[in-house]
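step=predict obj=Inner-membrane translocator n=361
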Amino acid sequence: MRQQQIGIKAFIRAISHKQLFLPIFALCLVLLFNIIKTPAFFNISIQNGVLYGYIVDIINRASELIILSVGMTLVIASGGIDISVGAVSALAAAVCVRLLGSSYDFYATPLVLSILAACVAGLACGAFNGFLVAKMKIQAMVATLILFTAGRGIAQLISAREINGRMVPGQILYVRMDSFKNIGGFLPRVVVPTPVFIAIGVVLLAYLLLTRTALGLYIKSVGINSGAGRLVGINSVFITFLCYLICGLTASVAGVISASRIYSCDANNIGLYMELDAILAVAMGGNSLAGGKFSLAGSVIGAITIQALTTSLYAMGVTADQLPVYKAIVVVLIVAIQSSEFKRWLSIYKQKIQMRKAVAQ
């Protein structure tokens, strides 16, 4: 009996030290709360030819955040941060919708070219951030703060519309064609939401890029110590620049999906507060905000947890204006737990417990 207890304790201790333990545990807690609140939470049915259910809606709505968290994971792992991803999403959405036009019968610009233009806009924003951080050595928070403020302003200028003889920025531009709506909705005769497929594709591409090439190791090396990386031949400037470039691209993809969901471009609201969600998803995924290590799987789990938590808070009557406050509290707690001082206190506490056990025996 005693050997079984020792074996169970050892098993629990081994699992609890895994990087994905806390993210999965947090997700299970949120899902458990949703099940208690809504007994039919896991019920899935097909209505009007598509999958329908609470869990389907959470995964669907988490798709943009999953895509954003992939880019944010790389940036944070390299020792940086990007608070402009929400504004970049709005900018890319504005570019795409402006090029498409608002006709019921035809696109002003082909759909594929409009999406590519949006991606190019995201890449340009990522290149701008990467240049400031990697080449100009500007602190990441300050560098990305530029597009955090200017990016949404540019998106509003792009989405300007003539009213009473003058161009008024920040107007909602609508897309009337059904094929654009399929990006954020459902493909014909497909029951799974299209954003889910896009999110899976982005995660798989990132996984292959990081595991089948040396890029993943280079990013970890730069995040731990960029100076030491340079001594062994790693181009830390290029690696950092590439991380921001990828982050800009993922932000543009998320922006196009967001625009497709609402059949329009709302530069004031697309991507709003998404930078906080992306950072929170990375942190909840067990990734260190100090850089040097990353887990794509953890970030994906973190993104789904955030969306499930958002759904729970809305069910509890929390308004959209109050939601960032609760998320900010979670960020503060996670950062505090990851701090070296907290780990030192925890180590001292464990030593005291062990000493008490030794004295008792």
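step=describe
The radius of gyration is 22 Å.
step=end
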